[in-house]
Write a structure and sequence with these properties.
Helix content: 40-55%
Number of domains: 3
CATH topology of the largest domain: Rossmann fold
Number of strands: 11
Radius of gyration: 23 Å
Structural class: alpha/beta
Shape: elongated
Largest sheet: 9 strands, mixed
CATH class of the largest domain: Alpha Beta
Strand content: 5-15%
Strand order of the largest sheet: 1-2-6-5-4-3-7-8-9
Number of helices: 19
CATH architecture of the largest domain: 3-Layer(aba) Sandwich
């Protein structure tokens, strides 16, 4: 069968048990030509480091392993495309990795033409973490970035929702094939992310989730992004794997602090101790990219349908509104003074002040006092 280059890439990607490292080695050995790899005899394939009889048999007998017509029909029926690493629509930063995916299955029309920031965190998150993730994602999109996450429960869901609320692009990277929605309750979010940006996966149709696939997904999340923001994670969470990939790939790493007695904050605090940028507001992220100067992303305009109050930021909680009323006269107060003036408890005040800082409604001064922005 005479294959086009794109078809050959699709076949290689659909072959089970090879892996991105061995795929890269095979392509390097055969002149970066996927058709030459598929046409090579087993003996030539096995001269490549890491390629044994099992892989060579799969590659040389690919027609028995992969039904190309069915794969192409699945793409068509799903309204998806297979974007090879040669395609201009392939994420530029991802191509720079040592072992990038040879292609991505993609649903959605996003062209990966904006710098991306990944946002990850715990599936078992707190309301605080969800609100922080949503606020940061909204503000990052308004500043001109694309928000990338994994379409999982918890922080991922909040990040995609925040990006969507700003009307800007967001990308969901799956640890399954495009035809498998995981978790199933995120079907509506899957469709919203596809409409606002793209849903992508390196896995062929029918591939279900496992520990290995999620780790591979995390490598892509970090690889296509200029930086990774960890909002909530314990020390053994999957987000820490993404953070490790970010470090190995030379990406900027940010971590949002949380309560010291909250297990879902332990990973973030560990990252901060290890050198991640402590992040309490979007400006902590934006200042790290100020060196871009003219290459910095262009902020997007607010959607015409937004009301004035929506354009100013997310709705405030009752406690936040009560605290903002204390600043109505233009005064500057520390947390204790806000506690007395508002009649709220100190813990509630500290949490609300942090959220108001994230929303850029108040700013903390060097002397520890707050004032309205």
């Amino acid at each position: 069968m005479n294959l086009t280059e794109d078809q050959a890439f699709l076949v290689l990607n659909a072959l089970p048990g090879i892996g991105p490292v061995n795929l890269r080695r095979l392509l390097d050995e055969f002149g970066d030509d996927p058709r030459a790899v598929l046409a090579a005899p087993s003996a030539a394939l096995e001269r490549v480091k890491g390629v044994g009889t099992k892989i060579s048999s799969a590659v040389s007998g690919w027609a028995k392993q992969v039904n190309l017509s069915r794969e192409e029909a699945r793409l068509s029926q799903a309204g998806a495309r297979f974007v090879t690493c040669r395609d201009e629509r392939y994420p530029a930063l991802l191509r720079e990795l040592y072992d990038p995916p040879i292609g991505l299955y993609q649903k959605g029309e996003y062209k990966f033409d904006r710098p991306a920031i990944a946002m990850v965190g715990s599936r078992r998150t707190t309301l605080y973490g969800q609100k922080v993730a949503k606020t940061l994602a909204t503000e990052l999109v308004r500043a001109g970035f694309c928000v990338v996450s994994g379409l999982a429960r918890g922080i991922d869901t909040a990040a995609h929702a925040g990006a969507g609320a700003a009307g800007g692009p967001t990308v969901g990277v799956l640890g399954t094939g495009l035809d498998i929605i995981y978790p199933p309750e995120n079907l509506d979010l899957y469709r919203a992310v596809e409409a606002a940006g793209a849903v992508v996966s390196e896995f062929p149709f029918g591939r279900r989730a496992d520990r290995q696939s999620f780790a591979m997904r995390n490598r892509i999340v970090a690889g296509m992004s200029v930086g990774v923001v960890v909002v909530e994670s314990d020390k053994a969470g999957g987000s820490m794997i993404t953070a490790r990939f970010a470090g190995e790939q030379g990406r900027q790493l940010f971590a949002v602090p949380g309560r010291i007695d909250q297990p879902t904050s332990a990973g973030c605090h560990q990252l901060i101790q290890d050198g991640a940028k402590l992040t309490t507001c979007v400006d902590d992220i934006l200042t790290e990219f100020s060196y871009l100067d003219g290459l910095a992303p262009t902020p997007i305009a607010a959607r015409p349908s937004q009301t004035e109050s929506e354009a100013e930021g997310p709705p405030m909680s009752a406690a936040e509104a009560r605290i903002m009323a204390c600043f109505a006269g233009g005064g500057r107060f520390n947390a204790d003074e806000v506690t007395v003036a508002s009649g709220l408890g100190i813990a509630e005040v500290n949490t609300a002040l942090m959220m108001l800082e994230l929303q850029r409604r108040v700013a903390k001064q060097p002397d520890g006092r707050f004032e309205a922005v």
